[in-house]
Amino acid sequence: MSTDTAPDGRHLDGSAGDADYGTIGRGYTDYRQPDPRIAAAIERALGDAVTVLNVGAGAGSYEPRDRTVTPVEPSASMRAQRPADLAPAIDATAESLPFADDSFDASMATFSIHQWSALERGLAEMRRVTRGPVVLLSCDPAALDRFWLVDYAPEVIATEASRYPEPERVARALGGQVRIEHVGIPLDCTDGFGEAYYGRPERLLEPGARLANSAWSFVAQDVEARFVDTLSADLASGAWDAAHGHLREQPEFDGSLRLLVGLP
């Protein structure tokens, strides 16, 4: 992981969280395309909101096209990867949103809250500027070890578990009424976060797939090399399929993916 930072503590790319997307964001959209089934769950949670704030918007994954979306993204490399049909993202952070109270019908953040420098402050800011639901797509750290990757790169799972906040902590910070939903991960998931490859292990041997998952940027290179060597050998010998082959036919995986919906 790059340690180059600007005087204000942000990475030179502008990334404000723990990961430097100036380094790991290259080619991100090649592997991280919104999955329509996960998108549908987010759309349902947004309800009838017309104006939506997207915090940590990145390249625009899961931004609804039929609403007025205001995206916020501190990373210059991620802002540059936004499609032309999406609104340009504002350079700002969750912890200091440049909007008046109750500015939006709803707000959302997908795979973002675990990277904020101050979780409670960021959530308080989202609640402050939002009249209706605050919709968060995140992961439950207690469920990350359901994924077979724990057998091959436990350091990556441990890194993720240390970064993702417990859903209950998020709920307390949001206040009001918060429901926590399990989100099933489809076998052919087009959003290449780690568990998306639960039934397609070969895909995680691609360097770009790992680069698009920020946890890999926090582990030593020898961990990644060991993972590639061990998984490659187990796929060649049939050992992976003997232990996990049923996942190749399992249409959905109940892993760590959670949708949190907070109402005032």
Automatic annotation (TrEMBL):
<dbReference type="InterPro" id="IPR029063">
    <property type="entry name" value="SAM-dependent_MTases_sf"/>
</dbReference>
<protein>
    <submittedName>
        <fullName>Methyltransferase family protein</fullName>
    </submittedName>
</protein>
<feature type="region of interest" description="Disordered">
    <location>
        <begin position="62"/>
        <end position="81"/>
    </location>
</feature>
<dbReference type="GO" id="GO:0032259">
    <property type="term" value="P:methylation"/>
</dbReference>
<keyword id="KW-0489">Methyltransferase</keyword>
<feature type="region of interest" description="Disordered">
    <location>
        <begin position="1"/>
        <end position="28"/>
    </location>
</feature>
<keyword id="KW-0808">Transferase</keyword>
<dbReference type="InterPro" id="IPR013216">
    <property type="entry name" value="Methyltransf_11"/>
</dbReference>
<dbReference type="Pfam" id="PF08241">
    <property type="entry name" value="Methyltransf_11"/>
</dbReference>
<dbReference type="GO" id="GO:0008757">
    <property type="term" value="F:S-adenosylmethionine-dependent methyltransferase activity"/>
</dbReference>
<feature type="domain" description="Methyltransferase type 11">
    <location>
        <begin position="53"/>
        <end position="131"/>
    </location>
</feature>
